[in-house]
Design a protein that fits this description.
224 residues, mainly alpha, two-stranded antiparallel sheet, 76% helix, 5% strand
Length: 224
């Protein structure tokens, strides 16, 4: 009976861990697809605009459908970009300087008022390319973890270990920011990883040699 419960417990941790790893990989793939779609639409919109651009009237072929889509999704892509989407912006002729300038969200409206420059286009494209490149490298790592059962167990155990933290957050004792800070801390990751390893090894040993023999072995070790 005890062996069966141990097997079920270990299997449950593996399943929880696999779901966590799979969801993480899926989110990365979704972000890659969205960033790629945004870049493709932005490039196509920009090309149409500059094909007939007149520098005197400061106007070009304005595709309203593309503009609406890009504007409706600009907050999402800017949020996803994080540090990839900000820069220190120096205005033309160095008239002023803006720190932490959000590239995409500040570039899209420039098409409407005709103040868009090639520099703005290149800045948006570059930050999207850097972001997509980072995600593609990260997706390789998450893809490897999908094939590693040890990672499944570690992530599953870490998720179960964090249940008391989520309960404290649910009751308002600690904030969500504190929860994320704890879960992402190096100490938490190391400690939870070690506990997961010990738990897995002890569970396997118990299954192989039996519960009573395992307890006897542990008592002998502790008496030394």
């Amino acid at each position: 009976m005890i062996t069966t419960l141990i097997l079920l417990g270990i299997l449950t941790v593996f399943i929880i861990g696999f779901v966590q790893v799979y969801n993480r990989h899926s989110r990365v793939v979704e972000k890659i697809d969205f960033a790629g779609e945004y870049r493709n639409k932005f490039i196509e919109f920009s090309k149409k605009y500059f094909q007939t651009y007149d520098r005197y009237s400061r106007a070009g072929n304005f595709d309203g459908e593309f503009y609406v889509w890009l504007t409706m999704n600009v907050n999402k892509i800017q949020s996803n970009l994080g540090t990839f989407g900000v820069m220190e912006y120096i205005a033309p002729f160095q008239t002023y300087r803006v720190s932490n300038y959000q590239i995409v969200i500040n570039t899209i409206p420039k098409f409407r008022d005709g103040s868009i420059k090639e520099f703005d286009i290149h800045s948006v494209d570059d930050c999207l390319l850097r972001y997509i490149g980072y995600l593609e490298e990260y997706s390789k790592d998450t893809q490897k973890k999908l094939k590693n059962p040890i990672v499944w167990f570690r992530e599953g155990f870490r998720e179960l270990l964090s249940v008391p933290i989520f309960i404290l957050s649910w009751f308002g004792i600690i904030s969500n920011r504190t929860v994320n800070s704890i879960k992402n801390s190096l100490i938490y990751k190391v400690v939870s990883g070690l506990i997961a390893l010990v738990t897995l090894v002890s569970g396997v040993v118990t299954i192989i040699v039996g519960y009573d023999q395992t307890i006897e072995l542990v008592n002998k070790i502790l008496r030394k």
